[in-house]
Write a structure and sequence with these properties.
about 725 residues; alpha+beta; 7-stranded mixed sheet; 5-stranded antiparallel sheet; 21 helices
């Protein structure tokens, strides 16, 4: 009988070695290493059992018995991890850690069993006709260990039955049955031995033998690894995209034909490609390389197993066509950007070049009107002033429209007072309204929050465009400006309506009026001034601010333009409950009825005409005025004299106004840090004021200089004690 058991276990060991080499021959997979460990443990069990049967010395038997246990204990654990990985199931690391810990503790106890009585209460040997043999009396920990081994096998079977449905393909069913048999055989053999149905023979190694047999069939006949192989051949092998796979040590595992074509060294296969070569390709992730005259993008990614890296995949994608298109798009983009840059520079230059002479024309006209002119001469000057303002309006419309069309128009939000904005609007348009004997009605909801945040400059521009249009096309009757609001989650929705009793618009022309350079009923309106851009600009500005505009009109009866635009609220105080505030405490609201003979003013401008205009416009205030033709000259004057206000031109040769301001602010003394410096500039672009404030200036006046705005700035910044009533 002894010889029969020996032969059985020798055959089992041979089968186990066949299985080991069969698995080693397969391509790597995420569960190959687990299976190799389980098979290695089975070999340990079967080989040690063979040697145990042939042993004649008691000490030799004891050592071989311990080695056999080493294989038994860890075979079950590695079989469990193998099946979990095969079914792509992730159990908690704590659970697996506990199982492994119990195995390690138990094997430690077994390895030292001849020094204590925890596992065997006694270890003795006896002799019979066949020689010596061990007499082992089992202790409680022996029973615990056997139960634990059965428990691990039950966990293996539980995983097989629970997760087998994840492998849905018909060809995997045979493999699943064999995997279940591989766990069921050792469980049954061990159980039969423990309950005493084997006549004292340890049948556990026989169960291991049967398990190995099932795995051999699964690997070699039913293709345990074939699903991976088939997927690779069908999908990866036929891809135009090159694929390279390496393990977590950057050792080469696989390259598809496309990758081998690009990197011929990959054809040498596993073990022949140096890890540094894979590393070099992997590190080029995200870059474009030239291979065989074509452009390829390297894309690298980690192959993760939960939170650990199992390997790396490199894909090489042919992007030759994409690169050609990208190159063409880049060239077109660069041309467009260059054209936009040239256009933007042209617009900025045109704005400066046009506003500079217009400042001279309007300034001189304003100064002449304050002189002793005859009635006829005064009328001539008034017409020059009116025509200049109209020309400036048209030019501004064209420049603004060009900015919007080129995407250079920006919306710059800031806090503003709606009460003040409406008052300013009233002052601006009141002259034109009175000239045509029209009535201007302003209806404002008194509950509108006074403090709002938005682009006040562009909002005021839209309002002026709409009111000026209403005045232009209305010969009798009235212009009504209505301002209301609606609360929103973000703030308010400002609702504005401008209605007139003018000539109206035909229904078929309602949409055309928002087109650039177009007016409705061109023949009837041919004598009306304007560029035909006001409404087009207004609609685009409102769109940029998140708003919209609508129009209703009855021909020969009048028109009604209305728009809505969202605004944030910064001061909830209702504007109708606030008294009209003066600009500063104790100062008059009316402009022009003050003088300041003791005030010292420095005007800095490289243009002699602009100097004369600025000085002339300030003449009625009787201030002491000093002129400087450059930033450097202004700095030298400031070293000798202190001025109450400095009006600084922006664009000057050698040293511009911003640079001169930086030098003044850096000079020693509190005066230089606090003296009011007000920018004078022909570059009246949106956001200019914010830029000047950031650079250390205190305020901003756009050219052409308005006498009203100039008066306002002087009142704002001149010390109160220097003001005298006239």
């Amino acid at each position: 009988m002894q010889m029969v058991w020996l032969c059985v276990h020798i055959v089992g060991a041979i089968i186990a070695f066949v299985l080991l080499f069969s698995v080693l021959d397969k391509k790597d997979s995420e569960y190959k290493s687990r299976l190799l460990m389980a098979v290695s443990c089975a070999i340990v069990v079967l080989v040690s059992k063979c040697l145990f049967i042939m042993a004649t010395e008691v000490r030799e038997m004891l050592v071989l018995g311990k080695i056999e246990y080493l294989g038994k204990m860890f075979a079950n654990f590695f079989a469990l991890t193998f099946i979990l990985r095969y079914y792509k199931v992730h159990w908690s690391r704590k659970i697996l850690g506990v199982l492994l810990g119990i195995n390690i503790i138990m094997i430690s106890i077994i390895m030292t069993c001849d020094y204590h009585s925890l596992y065997y209460s006694s270890i003795e040997w006896a002799k019979n006709t066949n020689g010596c043999y061990l007499v082992l009396v089992k202790a409680p920990l022996y029973n615990f260990n056997m139960a634990f081994m059965l428990f691990e096998l039950l966990l293996y079977l539980f995983a097989c039955f629970k997760y087998a449905n994840k492998q849905g393909k018909v060809e995997a069913k045979g493999v699943q049955a064999l995997l279940i048999g591989a766990g069921l055989a050792p469980f049954i053999m061990l159980f039969l031995y423990l309950v005493g149905l084997t006549g004292g023979f340890d049948t556990a190694p026989l169960g291991v033998l049967m398990s190995v047999f099932f795995l051999v069939v699964a690997v070699n006949k039913y293709g345990l690894f074939d699903l991976v192989k088939n997927a690779k051949e069908v999908v990866v092998e036929s891809m135009n995209e090159g694929i390279i796979v390496a393990n977590n040590r950057m050792q080469f595992l696989y390259a598809n034909p496309s990758a081998c074509k690009l990197f011929p060294d990959m054809k040498r296969g596993e073990g022949m490609v140096d890890a540094s070569e894979i590393q070099a390709i992997y590190e080029q992730s995200g870059t474009v390389v030239e291979l065989e005259g074509e452009s390829y993008e390297i894309r690298s990614s980690e192959i993760m197993d939960g939170t650990s890296v199992r390997g790396y995949m490199i894909s090489i994608v042919d992007i030759t066509d994409v690169m050609m298109q990208a190159k063409m798009m880049k060239e077109l983009k660069e041309k467009a950007e260059h054209a936009a840059l040239v256009k933007s520079a042209f617009l900025a230059n045109m704005s400066h070049e046009i506003r500079t002479p217009m400042n001279a024309i309007l300034g001189m006209a304003e100064m002449a009107l304050h002189g002793n002119l005859g009635e006829e001469e005064q009328e001539y000057i008034e017409q020059i002033k009116t025509a200049s303002i109209s020309l400036l309006t048209i030019i501004n419309d064209i420049l603004d429209f060009s900015k919007v069309e080129s995407g250079k128009m920006e919306i710059v939000e800031a806090d503003y007072d709606i009460h003040t904005m409406i008052n300013d609007l009233s002052h601006i348009v009141s002259g034109k309204v009175k000239d045509k004997n029209l009535e201007l009605k302003i209806e404002v909801n008194p509950l509108i929050p006074r403090g709002l945040r938005g682009d006040e400059i562009r909002l005021k521009q839209v309002l002026i465009n709409l009111v000026n249009n209403a005045v232009k096309f209305t010969e009798k009757g009235s212009i009504t400006l209505s301002v209301d609001y609606e609360k929103t989650q973000e703030g308010i929705l400002l609702k504005v309506m401008v209605a007139d009793t003018g000539i109206g618009i035909r229904q078929e022309d309602l949409e055309r009026i928002f087109n650039a350079f177009e007016q409705s009923d061109t023949f009837r309106n041919r004598k009306k001034e304007g560029s035909g851009l006001g409404l087009a600009i207004s609609r685009q500005l409102l769109t940029l601010m998140g708003g919209s505009i609508q129009v209703e009109s009855a021909y020969q009866e009048g028109s009604k333009f209305s728009f809505e635009v969202p605004q944030q609220v910064v001061d909830e105080t209702p504007c109708g409950l606030m008294l009209e505030e003066k600009k500063k405490s104790g100062r008059k609201e009316e402009y022009g009825n003050f003088k300041a003979p003791n005030a010292k003013i420095l005007i800095v401008d490289d243009n002699l005409v602009n100097l004369r205009v600025a000085a002339g416009l300030m003449k009625p205030f009787e201030m002491q005025i000093t002129k400087a033709r450059s930033g450097q000259e202004a700095i030298e004057l400031l070293k000798k004299e202190q001025y109450h206000i400095i009006f600084m031109d922006h664009m000057m040769p050698e040293m511009d106004g911003v640079e001169a301001t930086h030098i003044i602010r850096a000079m020693d003394g509190e005066y230089y840090k606090n003296v009011p410096i007000i920018a004078l500039t022909a570059n009246a672009i949106n956001g200019a004021k914010e830029m000047f404030l950031k650079e250390g200036l205190n305020d901003f006046i756009a050219k052409p200089i308005s006498i009203r705005e100039l008066s306002e700035k002087i009142l704002d910044w001149l010390p109160f004690e220097l003001l005298e009533e006239t």
